[in-house]
Design brief:
single chain, 173 residues, mainly alpha
Length: 173
């Protein structure tokens, strides 16, 4: 479900991503186990924040962090949790919190050697900023896109390079 959510976001199909997030939430509620897929839990929170369901997203991220703190979740979830907090901060209009959480996620992705995930996080956060009315963060969004573009170009992810070029052109207009 996490991959479906992220792909739907990448394709601009936000209604689909919200539907997948709601499905994931019903599964997690039934199982009460966030260790299944930390990326999907945090992707659900990201989708909720993008849909304007900021408080639900915040609660989900806090629950996932508590679950991990109790040593039930994977360390693997730490950068995804920070990325979710960055998106929530953008949705809530808190640029300083967004930058701090994003920097934390990037530090953890780098430490874990998760290059693609780091670039995907940059791409996602920039996309969220550009979709929001956060004019004060638009130059940061362009910087995030440039950084993600460099990585995607280096590793041959041409679809993302093309999408970033499109977003950068729209951001300049």
């Amino acid at each position: 479900l996490g991959a479906l959510m992220r792909n739907a976001i990448d394709l601009g199909r936000f209604d689909d991503s919200t539907r997948w997030a709601d499905e994931a939430l019903s599964i997690y509620a039934a199982q009460g186990d966030f260790s299944i897929n930390p990326a999907a839990v945090n992707s659900s929170a990201i989708v909720l924040a993008m849909a304007g369901r900021v408080e639900e997203a915040r609660v989900l991220v806090e629950r996932a962090a508590k679950f991990r703190a109790a040593r039930k979740g994977a360390v693997f979830g730490i950068p995804y949790n920070a990325m979710a907090r960055a998106v929530i901060a953008v949705a809530a209009g808190n640029p300083d919190d967004a930058r701090a959480a994003h920097e934390e996620s990037q530090m953890h992705f780098a430490r874990m050697g998760m290059v693609v995930e780091a670039a995907s996080g940059q791409f996602l956060l920039a996309h969220v900023i550009l979709r929001s009315s956060a004019d004060a963060m638009r130059s940061w969004a362009r910087s995030l896109l440039q950084a993600a573009r460099e990585t995607f170009e280096r590793i041959g992810f041409s679809r993302y390079v093309q999408e970033i070029d499109r977003l950068l052109a729209e951001a300049q207009a």
